[in-house]
Design a protein that fits this description.
globular
């Protein structure tokens, strides 16, 4: 009888938590159409990224989804076309763990597209492993941050060309609540055997905050804004990096009590579409609202150091930075 009572109490508590969390989950209310606009969604083939791509496609945008798996990419392309009726959906191969792949992808986009309105830096891996890529960087850091850093800089000419005073083009970086436990020791981010895997992931998500702040400063005078989205706790396959069974359990719990991928996509969609968000840069959003705290107010030194270190690691040349102040 006592065990039954405890079980009933536990179920009631879980339902109350679920009700509270679900009520806090904001939905993007923008009715903006994207006909004639071009968008890129990295990791747009599954989870949150797929939901973002579906939303953009349903609004009439040309949607380029990018991932390193051809079969997954083609399935996602067909799924988005089938669900939205928008046939202007293209899968392009992109392996963020390879600087060459990032450059090839960017070159292809610059050659084939005449505009880029929204760059959604969404792709990411969990705590997969602490090892070096062929480019000599931490795998987690390169996929989650350094690859996106290089991609963003290489695509800036097209973003700047597209942005107008009446409507800025936008870069959206996907951060995480783990940014709060990231380290400001940015010069050691790319080291192997130096951090716990969760810390590496946290550093990668903090990197987007630092990058967004620094890029905002250097884009002054250009019609491009860059902001960060925290999706919250979302049930996606990223948790399978811990363990497949544990990942499945976590996905179910998070989907029920916190957010499913569609709910997790809403803040990033809001940043990409909302009129007021298009006027602001270097901000962090949660549940479709700006985060108002002092935690990241004094990060200029770390932002500058990460910027310089990132340029060095991804081997950017001076002529590729000519668009920046």
């Amino acid at each position: 009888m006592f065990i039954l009572f405890i079980l009933i109490c536990a179920i009631i508590i879980c339902l109350l938590i679920s009700n509270y969390q679900k009520k806090r989950n904001a939905i993007c209310k923008s009715k903006k159409q994207l006909t004639g606009r071009t968008t890129i969604v990295t990791g747009g083939t599954s989870g949150i990224g797929l939901q973002i791509a579906l939303d953009f496609a349903s609004r009439g945008a040309k949607v380029i989804i990018a991932c390193p798996f051809n079969d997954e990419g083609m399935r996602a392309q067909n799924l988005i076309i089938e669900r939205t009726g928008n046939r202007n959906v293209i899968f392009k191969f992109l392996d963020l763990a390879s600087l060459k792949s990032v450059r090839d992808f960017a070159d292809d986009v610059l050659k084939t597209e005449d505009r880029l309105d929204i760059l959604m830096n969404n792709a990411g891996v969990g705590i997969t492993g602490d090892f070096l890529t062929d480019d000599g960087m931490s795998f987690i850091m390169q996929v989650n941050y350094y690859g996106h850093f290089l991609l963003s800089i290489l695509l800036l000419p097209l973003l700047i060309k597209t942005g107008k005073e009446s409507e800025n083009s936008r870069i959206v970086n996907m951060t995480s609540m783990t940014r709060y436990i990231g380290s400001m020791d940015v010069e050691n981010y790319d080291k192997i055997g130096y951090w716990l895997k969760l810390k590496i992931y946290s550093n990668s998500k903090l990197s987007f905050i630092l990058f967004s702040r620094e890029l905002t400063k250097r884009l002054a005078g250009h019609n491009v804004v860059v902001n960060s989205a925290d999706p919250g706790l979302v049930g996606t396959y990223i948790y399978d990096s811990c363990n497949v069974v544990i990942g499945w359990i976590l996905r179910q719990l998070l989907n029920v009590f916190f957010k499913n991928p569609r709910e997790g996509a809403q803040t990033a969609i809001h940043i990409a579409l909302d009129e007021k968000c298009g006027l602001l840069s270097g901000k962090i959003y949660e549940n479709c609202e700006i985060v108002n705290n002092k935690f990241f107010d004094n990060i200029e030194n770390a932002s500058e150091k990460l910027w310089e270190r990132s340029i060095e690691l991804v081997k950017l040349e001076n002529h590729e930075l000519k668009f920046l102040n």
